[in-house]
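Researcher: Let's do a round of design. I'm pasting the structure tokens now; please hold your answer until I've finished.
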């Protein structure tokens, strides 16, 4: 068969397959064009998941009739003034978007530069271009795409449902809106209610406000600002608290020179920074912005421009890991604010308005308290219909000798109380002023109740001490190795032969953390030394737990990461267990050490170590606000 030239229309449709993959790709290209044109307000309308109609309107610079005729030709662009592909500062630059869309759909572009007498419109149907003609439009540009893929119907078979395609398009707009908080966005879709994100500032506060607009107020309250620089690369943005995480990575927004990307190197660096703070199946919420010299990054390695390649990827990765780690470690210990918010919401008294005056009934409060862990429902059912008579209670205190009536202080119902030994000594003023306050009681031999100047703190003693032990092991490992303590009688631990073999293979790695063991026949190991920090730990349980996790240790990981996996398991066994009664001095010492320890707001598994309730929150619980 002889070689022949393909017709231009067919060439355009083949090329369009690389650029126009689905409706979301059309939305991305059109919104990027609007941003490159200097738009301050952008409206996106989607119908039928984008297959039936997409309309993007902006108030940008606009185009005259000559530019309209050129913009639908392949490789015609205004975004490379000096033709330097090594210094790209715009989102688009290849001049392929509009011709590709026009090759597979019905495309109409109306535009009017500021100061022009009127607008012009150009139409392209399946690659056939019509001449520009006058139109009615204010300053800016309006692009309408109808019947997407009508010229290539085979592509329609590979699209998902209207709802799924609309969701993909909305995600594109969310990412671009986060990249440019100074631009206002309106998004209208048949699949959901209209969204309006007002223009914000381009500074850190503006980015935080836009993050709250896009992801909700919870996200805005549970992030910390990050900023750092390394060898000419600048990083800024917002990183979510480990206690505010998601089950997938869809809430991770990464930008390189204001371009949204989904780059494996960047996502791997984020995962490494949160490795000590989140379990492997949880993902942080964040928005990170990298500013790089355009000559140090290649944005032209993928047709959709969602992947990039850095000249010095190691420098970028190190910057992200270091900056995120420092920002998360330096924050004042805190957990997700939503924990207190949800507690207050769950404990709301049924049938009462926010801030309503008057006391709630005891029955209503008992029923409401079921949402925060009390046996409120059972108490509510046990109360008489006419209310609670304390004088009829078997817990009523006896009258004092010489008094015809009990003093008011003696009329309180005697309810079971927590361990109140901390009340024997008034709290120190310095402790009350500390972030985690002064210990006042221990509840169920598991939780420490502390008082601050403006609220209270509830601490999980096991989770908190687990983090402290882990950080000490890490520090000792980085400094001069973990101190060891020899066992007077070596411990023999029976294991499954396969598990014993895995531990024996990794004995050298484990020994670096102070746990010295060796094979002891088939299916057993002999423990000779343990880390001094874990001297009181149950050695048998520790070794068996390590054996179970050994199968998950990836040899591809750096040695340091494998050691930290071992350290995390050891820390869990070396921490204060739930059920151990603590003295007030021990509780306060634990609180002070938490305040001085990095990442003390969550344990090694990403669970919160404490929750905080302000007096305002407590007053909401009792309908005082």
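Researcher: That's everything. Go ahead.
Model: Designed sequence:
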């Amino acid at each position: 068969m002889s070689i022949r030239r393909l017709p231009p229309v067919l060439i355009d449709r083949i090329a369009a397959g690389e650029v126009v993959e689905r409706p979301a790709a059309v939305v991305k290209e059109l919104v990027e064009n609007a941003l490159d044109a200097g738009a301050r307000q952008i409206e996106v309308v989607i119908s039928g998941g984008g297959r039936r109609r997409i309309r993007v309107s902006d108030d940008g610079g606009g185009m005259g009739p000559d530019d309209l005729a050129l913009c639908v030709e392949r490789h015609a662009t205004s975004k490379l003034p000096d033709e330097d592909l090594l210094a790209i500062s715009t989102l688009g630059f290849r001049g392929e978007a509009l011709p590709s869309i026009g090759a597979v759909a019905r495309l109409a572009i109306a535009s009017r530069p500021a100061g022009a007498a009127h607008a012009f419109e150009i139409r392209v149907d399946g690659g056939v271009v019509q001449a520009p003609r006058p139109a009615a439009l204010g300053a800016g540009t309006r692009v309408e795409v109808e019947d997407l893929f009508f010229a290539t119907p085979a592509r329609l078979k590979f699209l998902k449902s209207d709802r799924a395609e609309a969701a993909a398009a909305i995600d594109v707009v969310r990412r671009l809106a986060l990249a440019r908080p100074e631009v206002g966005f309106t998004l209208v879709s048949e699949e959901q209610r209209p969204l309006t994100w007002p223009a914000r500032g381009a500074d850190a506060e503006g980015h935080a406000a836009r993050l709250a607009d896009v992801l909700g107020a919870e996200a805005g309250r549970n992030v910390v600002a990050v900023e750092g620089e390394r060898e000419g690369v600048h990083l800024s943005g917002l990183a979510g608290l480990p206690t505010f995480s998601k089950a997938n990575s869809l809430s991770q927004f990464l930008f390189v020179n204001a371009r949204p990307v989904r780059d494996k190197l960047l996502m791997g660096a984020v995962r490494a920074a949160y490795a000590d703070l989140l379990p492997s199946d949880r993902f942080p919420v964040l928005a990170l912005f990298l500013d790089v010299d355009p000559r140090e990054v290649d944005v032209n390695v993928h047709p959709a421009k969602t992947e990039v390649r850095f000249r010095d990827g190691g420098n970028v990765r190190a910057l992200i890991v270091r900056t995120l780690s420092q920002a998360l470690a330096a924050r004042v210990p805190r957990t997700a604010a939503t924990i207190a918010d949800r507690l207050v919401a769950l404990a709301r008294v049924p049938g009462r308005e926010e801030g309503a005056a008057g006391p709630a009934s005891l029955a209503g409060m008992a029923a409401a308290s079921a949402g925060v862990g009390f046996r409120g429902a059972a108490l509510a059912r046990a109360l008489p219909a006419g209310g609670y008579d304390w004088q009829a209670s078997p817990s009523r205190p006896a009258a004092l000798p010489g008094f015809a009536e009990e003093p008011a202080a003696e009329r309180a119902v005697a309810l079971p109380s927590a361990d109140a030994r901390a009340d024997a000594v008034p709290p120190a003023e310095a402790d009350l002023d500390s972030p985690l306050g002064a210990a006042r009681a221990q509840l169920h031999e598991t939780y420490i109740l502390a008082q601050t100047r403006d609220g209270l703190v509830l601490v999980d003693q096991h989770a908190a001490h687990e983090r402290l032990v882990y950080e000490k092991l890490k520090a000792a490992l980085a400094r001069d190795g973990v101190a060891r303590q020899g066992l007077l009688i070596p411990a023999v631990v029976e294991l499954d032969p396969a598990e014993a073999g895995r531990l024996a293979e990794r004995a050298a790695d484990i020994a670096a953390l102070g746990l010295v063991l060796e094979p002891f026949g088939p299916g057993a190991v002999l423990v000779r030394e343990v880390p001094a920090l874990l001297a009181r730990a149950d050695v048998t349980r520790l070794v068996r737990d390590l054996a179970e996790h050994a199968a998950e240790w990836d040899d591809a990981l750096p040695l340091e990461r494998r050691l930290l996996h071992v350290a995390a398991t050891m820390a869990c066994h070396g921490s204060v267990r739930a059920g151990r009664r603590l003295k007030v001095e021990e509780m306060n010492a634990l609180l002070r050490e938490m305040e001085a320890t990095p990442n003390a707001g969550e344990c090694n598994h990403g669970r919160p170590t404490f929750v905080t309730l302000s007096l305002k929150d407590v007053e909401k619980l009792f309908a005082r606000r």
